[in-house]
Design brief:
Oligomer: single chain
Low-confidence stretches: 1-44, 48-62
Order of helices and strands: HHEEEEEEHEHHEEEEHHEH
CATH topology of the largest domain: Aminopeptidase
Strand order of the largest sheet: 1-2-3-6-7
Strand content: 25-35%
Distance between the termini: 57 Å
Number of helices: 8
Shape: elongated
Structural class: alpha+beta
Radius of gyration: 26 Å
CATH architecture of the largest domain: 3-Layer(aba) Sandwich
Number of domains: 2
Length: about 260
């Protein structure tokens, strides 16, 4: 290699390195127009992106942790915490953007923050773990088939104090409801319980539904309906229409989920 060729390669390397560092520090400027195009509100801005840490080489497996926020009319409405794993193969980017958290206060803000995350340059794959089962992202995508979706259990409920648990949540229309509950471990939960007006008390009234406490734990937060539990043989309907009333009582949106590993 001649001296001239070596110097040219050296300066090309420096220019490319500077471009990569600029992308890591301020990708918001690169994606702002695309984020704005999804949301009609003219008062939306996407910023500030901060470089939290940098490891390894920016041209290989660099790891950047960054934060971004969406503001509407000067008020913060959404944020994201994410990392970029930069890599290339045969001259093409194979980089990954791993989203740790991305939350919006409104549907518009949620769409804007995801528009930003999906527009970051030199990213081949965007990954999100611990998303709620009713996350709007799949319906926001122009081609949802490109999303590799996998579901798993991430939130578990074991009711220990049944009257306190059932009296401690909000309900829809549909009561009163009498449940005959079986609990082989916490026998103080055994028996008939009447749920009426948001309060749960013991009763001698004829039951509407019979179920194990494990099935009640599945329905407690509204993620699993009593209809589903009945179809799986987990709930016995003792009074006609009781399943429909129970579903109306326990239904909840958004669906429950846990954002952190605990």
């Amino acid at each position: 290699m001649s001296t001239g060729t070596a110097k040219k390669g050296f300066w090309l390397w420096r220019v490319l390195l500077a471009a990569l560092i600029a992308l890591a520090v301020a990708p918001a400027a690169l994606a702002k127009n695309d984020a704005l195009s999804l949301v009609p509100n003219d008062a939306i801005s996407v910023g500030v992106v901060k470089l939290a840490d940098m490891r390894s080489s920016p041209l290989s497996s660099a790891l950047f942790q960054q934060t971004a926020n969406v503001s509407m009319d000067g008020d913060a409405q959404a944020y994201a915490i994410f990392r970029t794993h930069m890599s290339w193969e045969a001259g093409s980017a194979t980089s990954r953007l791993v989203v740790r958290e991305a939350l919006g206060a409104t549907p518009q803000a949620t769409a804007a923050i995801w528009r930003f995350l999906l527009d970051v340059d030199w990213i081949a794959t965007v990954e999100l773990s611990l998303a709620p089962p009713d996350h709007p992202l799949l319906l926001l995508l122009a081609n949802p088939r490109r999303a590799g979706y996998r579901s798993g259990d991430g939130l578990w409920i074991r009711i220990v104090d049944l009257p306190a648990a059932l009296s401690g949540r909000s309900y829809g229309e549909g009561g009163p409801l009498v449940l005959e509950v079986r609990d082989a471990i916490c026998d103080w939960n055994d028996g008939r319980w009447q749920l009426d007006g948001g309060a749960c008390e013991r009763t001698d009234a004829e039951p509407d539904l019979a179920l194990d406490v494990s099935a009640l734990g599945s329905a407690y937060l509204g993620a699993v309906s009593f209809t589903q539990l009945r179809d799986a043989g987990r709930v016995q309907e003792l009074r006609e229409g009781a399943i429909r009333r129970a579903d109306a009582l326990f239904a909840w949106r958004p669906l429950p989920w846990c954002q952190e590993i605990f």
